[in-house]
Write a structure and sequence with these properties.
This protein is an alpha/beta fold. About 35% of the residues lie in helices and about 20% in strands. The chain binds adenosine-5'-diphosphate and magnesium ion. Adenosine-5'-diphosphate binds next to helix 1.
Length: about 260
């Protein structure tokens, strides 16, 4: 399996091919309706360790809904979501614990405007996941250093550029060392000049082996950074494969039409 990314040493089974690797995430027949409207009509796919999967599709195709289901912000109507060996759709599980295993960054409004960068980054770890303050500050300092933002620890969000704010939001999402990072159109609200620094950070995370599910309209980035594309259309997976297969070689007229908007 030539697509198996460089192992960081903790996944020996990954070398034996994707069929025996334990997926980080497994979606099995996910259905989600709002009222009479079924937005997700049976979505199934896996994400392997260290894999970067780009979730693409027209606006309204259910990308955010799917991510909110994975993050337990929405309850599925049917199907299972496995995070490692845990079925997180099982109502008996500890939801906070499951959420601490997933990092999430949204399009906007990620940081609390009345709190410093340091407080923003440490808040959930302390309040939700009950970390000791010292441990949270230590971890946050380490993460801010890694992204070159340690000098901004006491700054407030409005003193940062939008790109810096999103990088801080990514750092916050990494606080609890999540097994999976969900990135939902994290550059869509940014000034085009600031998109690059955020995407560069995603590339760095990929190189470090982070497992990522991202929705994006940055098609050249998806082409370059994703190991696999999952294309949603009308509530189902219309196509799935390598970026080259789905974005360049698909013979499906609807798929070709969709990607033609981004050229
Ligand atoms: P995408 O992220 O791909 O643009 P969304 O997941 O945001 O798509 O939306 C998918 C569909 O579900 C849209 O038709 C949207 O209007 C609908 N939808 C999303 N959230 C809600 C909600 N909370 N209540 C009702 N309808 C919703
Ligand atoms: Mg969305």
């Amino acid at each position: 399996d030539s697509s198996t990314p460089t192992s960081l040493g903790q996944q020996p089974s990954a070398h034996m091919g994707s069929s025996v690797a334990n997926p980080v995430l497994r979606l099995d027949g996910i259905r989600k309706s709002y009222g009479e409207t079924e937005v997700l009509k049976g979505i199934s796919f896996d994400i392997q360790p260290h894999e970067v999967v780009a979730l693409l599709g027209p606006s309204g195709s259910g990308k955010s809904t799917l991510m909110r289901c994975v993050n337990l912000l929405e309850r599925v109507n049917d199907g299972q979501i496995w995070l490692g060996d845990t079925d997180i759709t099982d109502p008996r599980i500890n939801q906070d614990k499951a959420r601490s295993r997933i990092g999430v960054v949204f399009q906007q409004f990620n940081l609390f405007p009345h709190m410093s960068v340091m407080r923003n980054v440490t808040l959930a770890a302390i309040k939700v996941h009950h970390w000791q303050k010292d441990r949270a500050y230590e971890r946050a300092t380490e993460l801010l250093e890694r992204i070159g933002m340690q000098a901004k620890a006491d700054a407030y969000p409005d003193q940062l550029s939008g790109g810096q704010q999103q990088r801080v939001a990514i750092a916050r999402a990494l606080m609890t060392n999540p097994e999976l990072l969900l990135l939902d159109e994290i550059t869509s609200a940014l000034d085009p000049m600031l998109v690059g620094e955020v995407l560069d950070m995603v590339t760095e995370l990929k190189e470090q082996g982070t497992t990522i599910l991202m929705a994006t309209h940055e098609m050249s980035f998806a082409h370059e950074a994703a190991d696999r594309i999952v294309l949603l259309r009308n509530g189902v997976i219309a196509e799935q494969g390598t970026p080259h297969e789905v974005m360049d070689e698909s013979q499906n007229p609807l798929t070709k039409e969709f990607f033609s908007h981004f050229r």
